[in-house]
Amino acid sequence: MTGLVLVLTVFLACAVEAVEALTIVLAAGTSRNWRSALQGTAAAVAALAVTVAALGPAIGLIPFQALRLVIGALLLVFGLQWLRKAILRASGYKALHDEADAYAKEVASASAAAGGGRGVVSDWYAFTLSFKGVFLEGLEVAFIVVTFGNNQGSVPLAVLGAVVAVVAVIGVGLAVRAPLARVPENSMKFAVGIMLTAFGTFWSAEGAGVEWPGADAALLVLIPAIAVLGLGTAVLMRRTKTAGAGAPAVADPASAAPTAPSPTAKGSLS
After folding, report:
1. In this structure, are residues 199 and 72 in contact, taking their beta carbons and an 8 Å threshold?
2. Which of 50, 225, 230, 269 has the greatest number of beta carbons closer than 10 A?
């Protein structure tokens, strides 16, 4: 796999997670307390740093073949989940993810919550909301960076892709101080689902002892093949949904059948 593909994959995946984390922090800051929201963000980043520092080196102790099998299987599970949701959204069976709507819901929930602080934190709810959002999304970013970096032996490139994504999202978010509703997040999730599924398939198969023709070059065939399969499935499902919605309603045969007059009614008519 070329360095460009690695950086692009990590960038897209981390950008999606960063947008979701930013939405939560903006909701906590605008509806509650900016200082507490930023304190929660800083605490989450510190906790992430400790977590990665503690668990990151442990990954290097796992045998490389087993590492590829385990991480490949995990990426395949995550990738198929992302791809499934993306196909459902693209075909109309699931509502498109709306960052503005998610932001509005977070703001409404935060505004309705009770106030109160603890110690140096003046608004504990804003702190907790930001901490939870940044830490959970950050864990996914760390997982993506560590797995892709270790498997390809290019941790610096993986870190570069993640840093560029996070800095770009934060920069735009601070500039507009609003949810990034115009970011094509659904398209990005479709692309990330394709990439994670492809890499998960590739690495899990290698971990199981499969030798791909052309080694890493096989990804150049695997990625387009999964993309065509995913997009084709979305198009087929959309056509099926449209055809089902446009079909005329079929009358119930039982309700359409004439009802025979009862003996009492017949006698009264005579």
Report:
1. yes
2. 230
